[in-house]
Each structure stands twice: as structure tokens, then as C-alpha cells.
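Workshop exercise sheet. Pairs work together: one partner reads the sequence aloud, the other fills in the structure field after running the prediction. Swap roles for the next sheet.
Pair: D.N. / O.F.
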Amino acid sequence: MTTADSPATAARRPATAWPLENAVFSAAMVAQRLPWTDAPARALGLDALTRDGLTRLLFAHLRRTRSGRPVRLSTPYGSFLVPLTTGDAEAMLTRADEAGVLGPASGLTPGGRRYGLSPHAPLDREAAAAVAGADPRALDALLAEDVDRAIATRRGDGTLEWHAWYRGMLRLSRRVVAGAAAVEDTLLSEVTAAATAAVGERPYEARSAALRRRLELYLADPDPASLTGQVLARGVDADAAAPALAHTLALVSESAAGTALQALALLAAGAALSPRDAVGEALRRYPPVAAAVHPVRAPFVWEDLAIGAGTEILRAPGWLRGRDDPAGPEPDPGPAALCGSPAGCAAARIAALVAEGVVRVVTARVRPVVIAPGLGADRLPDTLDPRTLLVALEDLEEGSTGAGQGRGSVGRTTAVPVAAYGYAPAAYGALAHAGADRLEQHARSLAACAADSGWDKDDAGERFRMVLLGHAERCAEAADGVRRAARRLAD
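Structure field:
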């Protein structure tokens, strides 16, 4: 019998943080919405006074003063019960989940904004085990075509453009989960993202129904090589499988696009030695779900704490660990980092495996080089947003330059110098020339589209034509401006 089940144990309310502790935590959350607040501290070399530094120091202080026990923190964005260790967070949420008192979780940004998380749905265990235990070479072969397409979208200087990479990884995710017939179905990814964003809000039911209808196309005729095909081959009912497959698609899309790119950056910086280590380190340091809020619908007791209805439990693995903390006893950070479920998540493990496969296939073809931000094995940032990460992919046969690699030209034979902090203005000028060429090409494409005779049929078509021509003109003007700036930089 545990203390949670013992009638002799008198349950008590969780401790409440001191007003100053609440104020410091609130100030750190408010400051997250003002990125420039880190500049003075970094200029003075006082990383402890940055937004993330203050958050780490506060949690370390709370662990010392509360003996590691959960504490209630009040902020302008809500009052949260915060377990101060990963073990306590897992145990508390597992107890609440077993009691059936948890509501749908939502993500929480460091700045206090809430966002929807893909609703957890358990994946068929046998299918998940088969995927996890499969030969990695089979997964690599499945990913190869889409990874090659993503590599081919490099800019002239060899760098990856985030939106092109993101679209390529969504395509890959649809192939893995729904099958080859879904690779061009961009609407499937759009509906998945829309349904996830609406969790807990009024539009969710309609968007969730739209997602189920979209998945039915691939449940009716499953691809044997896809996860959908493997799940249905084990006799799982299609209606029962749909929520789990939708959840898996959301997590695989997140890990393939964001976590895999972060892992490539960690490999390039020497902070990891293998794709598996790189993905694990990326999930540990930069979890997509850095913090999740779990609402409690009915009272329950965990150990000696009485937790009332209406309490919001804040599980924040990304905030509890310090920047230089070791990985700790949790060898697989994937489930907690990708999914808000306290009961573990097979879909999250598959998502981590797909990210490993992406990194493995990419590094078999090209060498990643981090352009920005500046990374080193002993100098990793507190946050690494994949949307702002600039990575170049250098062809392996060209990559024997040693310590100076990545500073000249990387990628294809048409490469221009890579623009990076501290390089000569001419390098920026060459990159600007390439950007101007792309803008000019886009302007021509828009003008050609506007010239199509299909717009002649009615007034609406003419209006759209005018819009297209306006966009084309603005792109052409922008190309001229960028080209003038490029010439100035090259002089």
C-alpha cells in the first residue's frame, strides 16, 4: 500500500511559493515576450540574468527550499502546481490519469501563451513494436526519396530554406504514416495542423471530423509499407485506428521537420556523435513540448498531497533541466518531449525513430554545416528554434577542407559564398544576388499566370489577375532593390 492509498495519511494542500518567487517567475514569463531583454545580460557575459537563466535559477532555488516537493506558482497567465522533478511530474500525472481526473493538456510557451497539443490516442502495441524493431535500413529506404527532394531544394549557397524543408518533411511524414498515395495530399497536413491548433476550443469537433474524413481515403486502401497498412494488417478496426494515426502523423511531422534539423545542427557542432544521440540530445535540450498544462477535473490524492479540482499541473521538462545538466535516468526523452500524455506514447517513439532516420539518410549524402547561430559542442544555446536555424548541406566529395569548411562555398557547383556572421560583405552580396534572381523569377511566374486566358471569363477572374499583377510588380521592384544592395556590398 502506498501513502496515496493509506487512510492513515493526512493529505495536505501543496505549498505555495513566496510572493517574491511568484514575482520572479512572472517577470521571466513576461520577459519571454520581449526578446531584446537578453541583450544587456549577454553583453556583460551574465547568462544567469537572461530570461532562460532566471527560470533555471528559480527552479533550482525552489528545489532547494522546498526539498524538491511540488509548489504552487501564481503568474499573470494562471496559477500552476509545479512538480520540481521529472520523477514527481510523471508520478503525479500517472496517478491522476489512473484516477481519470485529467482534462486535455495544452502546451505553454515560456511567455505564457497556450496552444493546442495533438490529443493522445494509443497506437496498436504490436504495430508500434514492429516499427520500432524493424531494420533501420528499411526505414531509410522509405525516407530516401523525400530526403533527396528536400536536399535538392537547397539554395544556391547550399543552405536550407525553412519553408522548403518543412514542406518536404510533411511530405515524408505523410508517406510514413498514410502511405505513398498521401505524399501529394497537402490538405491532410493542413487539416491535421488545424485540428491540433483547435484542441479545447469550439471549432475542434468540426476540424477533427474533417481530419477523420481525410484519413478515410487511406484507411480504405492502405499502403502495406505505411504505418496505416501495418496497423490494419493486424486486424485493428479502421475507425478505432484513425485517432491514433492522426496523432502519429502530427508527432512525426513535428519531429521530422523540427527535431531532425536541430539534430543535424548538433551533429555539425560536435555535440553528438551519431544520429540517435543527436535526436535524443535535441529532444532533451529543445523538446517541442517544453511545458504542458494538465487541468484536473476532480480532486485526487498523490502521496500526501490533496490536489483539488480546477488545479492546473504544469509539467515542464524543458524548464526543469539546466542547460548543462546530464540527461539523467531517462534514456528515452521522446515521449515526454513530443506528447503531453502521462501514460507514455508509442507514436512519440515512432516519431523519434523517423527523425533519426531523416538524420541518418541526410548525413549519408551530405555534411551539415551550421551557419547561424554560432554553435559549439561546449557552447549550445538555451533555445534553438528550427525556423530560424540556418544549416548548409555540403556535398561529401567537396567536404575535405577541415577546420575552415563551410566558409567558402558549399553544396552544388553553382554555389555562391555562404553568408554568415563575421564574413566579408562580398559574401552577403553574393547571397543577395541569388535572392534577387529568385524574386525576379517569381515575378515572371506571377506575370505569366496573370496572362492566362482563363482569367478572362468573368469579373472575379479579372480581379484576381489584377492581384497577381500587383504581386508581380512588387516582386520585381523588390528584386531591383535587393540587386542594388548586392552591388553595393560587392563593391
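Discussion prompt: The two ends are 79 Å apart (CA to CA). What would you look at next?
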